[in-house]
Amino acid sequence: MDGHQEHSPANRANVILLGLVSFINDTSSKIIVPILPLFIAQLGGGGFAVGLTAGLSDSAASLAKLLAGYWSDRLGRRKPFVLVGYALSALAKLLLAVAVTWQHVLALRVMERLGKGVRSAPRDAILAASTQKRSRGRGFGLHRAMDSGGALLGTLLVLALYWEFNLGFMEIFLFAGLLGFASLLPLWLVKEKRDDKKPTPPRLQLAALPPTLRRFMLIAFTYALGNFSYMFFVLRAESLFEERLAVAIPLLLYALYQLSFTLFAIPAGILSDRVGRRPVLLAGYGLFTLLCIGFMFAAALPSLLLLFLLYGVNYALVEATERTLVSDLAAEGERGTALGAYHMMTSLAALPAGLLAGLLWELDPDYTFVAGALLSALAMGMLAMLLDSNRPE
User: Fold this and answer.
1) CA nearest to 79, candidates 339, 342, 336
2) Nearest Cα to 321, choosing from 377, 280, 376?
3) How much is the pTM?
4) How far apart are CA 148 and CA 279, in angstroms?
5) Digit-coded pLDDT (tens) for 280-331
6) Measuring CA to CA, which residue among 117, 32, 191 is closest to residue 346?
7) How many CA atoms lie within 13 Å of 186's alpha carbon, on the beta-carbon side?
8) N or C: which terminus of the chain has fewer CB atoms within 10 Å of its end residue's CB?
């Protein structure tokens, strides 16, 4: 499959088109995401409600991630799963416009993440099939850069809608939902390679995956336990300001994080191609440990600016590199299943991560950051010791 496929115009177009879909979709999502914890608070939800929403929404969709990846392998078709997933997420965003309790927000966030669960592994499998291993990090990095570029635009849009046009949450959600449906348009142009041969059904068992891959998934799961939702960084920033600035400043900081992510995503992918996935992930895990410590002591805007900038670098180092490493370690015919299992395990970690972070936040916000620092440091140590550094990555 690798051969000269990277030079195929259809494969290059797939990477760009899927990036464009993610750009538009994430513009839509990040119109909603930065204000979601503020909306939950407005509806009467506290730190526990924020943690539950963040954790349960990702974990509830975890099984869908594995099953969608598995069935895309079994059927030899991935694009229909991607289409359904994006459509489901767009519908959930639209329905947020009629939410009147934080429990409604919880249910719709679960629905939106379910759509993400259906599309993630099949989409990543199309990306992996459209790139060569030696430059796969660049391809995934480009996709993440376009994704985060849309997130940056969405964050700036919501700031404009809230601050300049004085729109309420409901109007903002309606706009975001309609934009989510627009993200489906480029997806129709994605060309999936058709194989006339009946695909060999993969085994739906984690034990059937390569041992090194299983060990890495355990490491990624551990990191995900400590990598609590961005919502707590937003809440930390909000607590340092008053009135309208308590919304505007966190939105600007979130935009800075997305800008940093966008700028560093492609360089991080190229770096992982050149020096290997493991060193890049070690740097990313270590940086998150330092970030958690930094947020414990953040008390003014300058420190928050630096921390949100580094938060974007952290995501650039970790997000695409984990997926690329899973793609490298999995056999082509089981890549959807492997990516689905990876997405499932990291999503399963989101519920205990969110609940732990939320409960600790209610006791003392610093406790949340201590837990994040310890777990990411543990993942860093596991990666250094358990992943065979001699194995080609």
Assistant:
1) 336
2) 280
3) 0.71
4) 23
5) 999 999 999 999 999 999 888 899 999 999 999 999 999 889 988 998 888 7
6) 117
7) 16
8) N
